Amino acid sequence: MTAEYKVHGDIAVITLNNPPVNGLGLATRQGIVAGLEQANADAAVKAIVLTGAGKAFSGGADIKEFGSPKALQEPNLLSVIGAVEKSAKPVVAAVHSVAMGGGLELALGAHYRIAAPGTQVALPEVKLGLIPGAGGTQRLPRVLGVETALNLIVSGEPVKSELLASLPGQKLFDKLAASAESLPEEALALAREVAAKHAADGSAFPLVRNLPCKHPLGDAYFQFARNMVKGMAKNYPAPGKCVDAVQAATQKKFDDGMVFERDLFINLMWTPECRALRHLFVAERAASKIPDVADDTPKRDIRQVGVIGAGTMGGGITMNFLNAGIPVKMLEMKQEALDRGIATIRKNYEAQVKKGKLKQDKYEQRMSLLSTTLSYDDLKDADLIIEAVFEEMDVKEAVFKQLDAVAKPGAILASNTSTLDVDKIASFTQRPQDVVGMHFFSPANVMKLLEVVRGKATAKDVLATVMAVAKKIKKTAVVSGVCDGFIGNRMIEQYSRQAGFLLEEGATPAQVDKAVEKFGFAMGPFRMGDLAGNDIGWAIRKRRYTEKPDLKYSKTADLLCELGRYGQKTGAGWYDYVPGKRDAIPSQLVVDMIEKHRKDLGITPRKISDEEIVQRLVFSLVNEAAHILEEGIASKASDIDMVYLTGYGFPIWRGGPMHYADQLGLFNVAEAMKRFAKNPLDDAKFWQPAPLLARLVAEGKTFN
Ligand code: NAI
């Protein structure tokens, strides 16, 4: 059992002990109930303290039980809370560190609560597309008042215990302990005190369920709250249901409110949004696991970082480490380049200071961790060196040969290349086992995604170290094998090709973008092209025309580039731009250019539905992803979802391309692809289902 039982004098202490966060899995729930029974059966025990071992009171549901029938097996959480409420001896919850979700709901069932300062209190269910399902929406408003409780429930964000304890009239905590260290003693004292009081006056134990629950404005307040929430969370049903549930707490009898909450909870569980968010939760954790690299692989110490190249990427990469308190030495060829790089970093930080997002002293502290050099010798102490120089193999060769000559043994040598062969780069050194790709996304100080490119020779401890470093600098790291474009860009290339075919057939850039943005992408393909620079895709296509001459491409993007319309940086691209502004204004010139191109090809344009646009673009991602998965470039489908959710603006509530395809049914995806293949203007070869996709369809299986 994962809850311990001990008696201290006349007080029984039940301690949840299910590391890392005392998740309320079946064994823990059984332990709590058994402890309560034992305490109630022992005449020498006068009261009970319920607390958690280690780093949490309880973080809530046990993620290992996610989606398994064990989660519902008796005693389920509702029964455990019922047993606490019904205990014949008073129960004091002693919370510390983390009291979240089911953990907080459990504490709310206790007769008394004492908290250590610094406890993170939250009902984060909304982040998984749910509402609290074990009384949270009914009890929290009774102890904190409707507004405070609703804010907590709708945001899912943690609030510190001392802040909540300071709210006038709050009944969440009966007492705030002086410190985490004194909590156990103070909890025992409180338990003795309340046991004596109830013994003396014979009063009933206080229960949160018996407290009144009202808002002075009544339903008008909830109407207001609902409007607020609708505006903020238009793609998610759960926040609105939080409002409904809390409103029910003010309208219904407690037990009826509980039933209402339960119904909402169960209905939400099966919504696509909840499935997607739960998938994301699991996928995020799975991404850091590499099938053949054990969790306990020893990691190398990373205390000092070197960055080569102070350009767009080098500067952003550097900021990540400074933000995490890790010193960085930047190397360039010329002092001017270093000066420019530093000025950009300063400008970025100063903008944050101006917005009030960064304190002046923090800014200075970060800058003090940064040093620069023009000499490779100064990198001899670096534990990790990341190269972000020009994207040319000759330049990379020169850099890695020099690094090999000066870097200390065991230093990790990483390249930020986005297209070059990491194995070839590794071969420029005598230590290919220490070479790895760290593919950051632009702007590197903002974007969450980091593709960790595993070379043929990359050592396991190098991978383990880089994954740990990624976590430290707050990136979502996904491992990719070596191939052109790695996971993300290899897929986006097919998506861009397909976007080009759509233009030739009759769509406009604005129509395509609108359809894709309505689906939920942060940006459609053409707005994205204008932002990133259309010349980048042009350079890649030119390479492809010689490498793969029979690959079909639409020429529209080339025609655009021939006009010098590279995007925002040239003031014009697929759209027109007003100087100094980023608003994309549909361009008549571009529409005329596309029409002329169609005429030249003898194409009669047709109206293409938004649904077809979205399907062709998303399924082009899915089919390439199936190749990537089959080739082992990605080790699991959920990694591909993470890449698209964190690096390419795929709508979170759709769970990523693979999850989305799974939910649609792979059979349906394959059928749609067959239809697209018959379209004479599309590329039939393009829509040849990847062997893995075909196999999964035949076997009735899914990617994830
Ligand atoms: P950039 O042109 O802004 O910066 C490159 C910097 O490297 C320049 O400051 C240059 O002076 C310096 N440099 C060139 N050769 C050098 C050498 N031998 N020693 C020291 N410094 C040298 O280029 P950017 O955009 O920062 O790209 C750098 C790398 O990052 C490339 O490999 C690129 O493919 C990759 N990358 C770029 C992304 C982007 O969106 N810009 C995204 C992901 C990766």
Strand content: 5-15%
Mean pLDDT across residues: 96
CATH topology label of the largest domain: 2-enoyl-CoA Hydratase, Chain A, domain 1
Identify every distinct bound molecule in the structure, by name, code or SMILES. 1,4-dihydronicotinamide adenine dinucleotide
- Determine the number of helices (DSSP H or I, runs of at least 4 residues): 28
Overall form: globular
Which regions are unreliable across 5 or more consecutive residues at pLDDT < 50? none
Describe the biggest sheet?
8 strands, mixed
Name the CATH superfamily assignment of the largest domain. Answer: 2-enoyl-CoA Hydratase, Chain A, domain 1
Walkthrough of the structure:
By secondary structure, the protein is α/β, with parallel strands linked by helices. The chain folds into three domains: 3-269, 2-enoyl-CoA Hydratase, Chain A, domain 1; 305-480, NAD(P)-binding Rossmann-like Domain (Rossmann fold, 3-Layer(aba) Sandwich); 488-699, N-(1-d-carboxylethyl)-l-norvaline Dehydrogenase, domain 2 (Orthogonal Bundle), CATH 1.10.1040. It is built from 28 helices and 19 strands. The strands form four sheets. It has an eight-stranded mixed β-sheet, with helices on both faces. Strands 1-2-3-4-6-9 form a six-stranded mixed β-sheet, with helices on both faces. It has a three-stranded mixed β-sheet with strand order 5-7-8. The site of 1,4-dihydronicotinamide adenine dinucleotide has 25 residues, from helix 12, helix 15 and strand 15. 1,4-dihydronicotinamide adenine dinucleotide (NAI) binds next to helix 12, helix 15 and strand 15.
